[in-house]
Specification:
Blueprint: H1 2-24, E1 30-35, E2 40-46, E3 51-57, H2 61-66, H3 73-89, E4 96-98, H4 107-117
Parallel strand pairs: 1-4
Antiparallel strand pairs: 1-2, 2-3
């Protein structure tokens, strides 16, 4: 029980630290990532206007045809490529990567690398 509380506390502290760092660089839109056990979501948000410019998730119809599961690295790579393509079409080439409280590892890192390879600049 103590260990679970410590992990939750550590995750919250990490999230606050990441958000504070992003607030300093509010000149660019942010690429926000959320992952659950079954799916992966990404969106490009303009904090100045307070609106979402582009959003992609593994719940979209095109992903159901391409990926078996929405909660693995292959699905995260597809989301990363798609979010980069849609963001570039919307006129966004530079973003700030908001990984929230997640460590830059596994699906989060795979999504970020795929977005970089598809043309987004972090």
């Amino acid at each position: 029980m103590r260990q679970a509380r410590a992990i939750v506390r550590q995750r919250k502290r990490r999230g606050v630290r990441v958000r504070n760092r992003l607030k300093r660089d509010a000149t660019r839109p942010r690429l926000c990532v959320f992952r659950s056990g079954k799916h992966c979501y990404a969106q490009v948000i303009d904090d100045r206007q307070g609106r979402t410019l582009v959003a992609v998730s593994t719940l979209d119809k095109q992903f159901k045809e391409q990926a078996r599961s929405g909660g693995n690295k292959a699905a995260a790579v597809l989301v990363g490529k798609t979010i980069a393509e849609r963001a570039i079409q919307a006129g966004v080439k530079e973003v700030v990567f908001d990984r929230r409280e997640y460590k830059y590892h596994g699906r989060v890192a795979a999504l970020a690398q795929a977005a970089r390879q598809a043309g987004l600049v972090f």
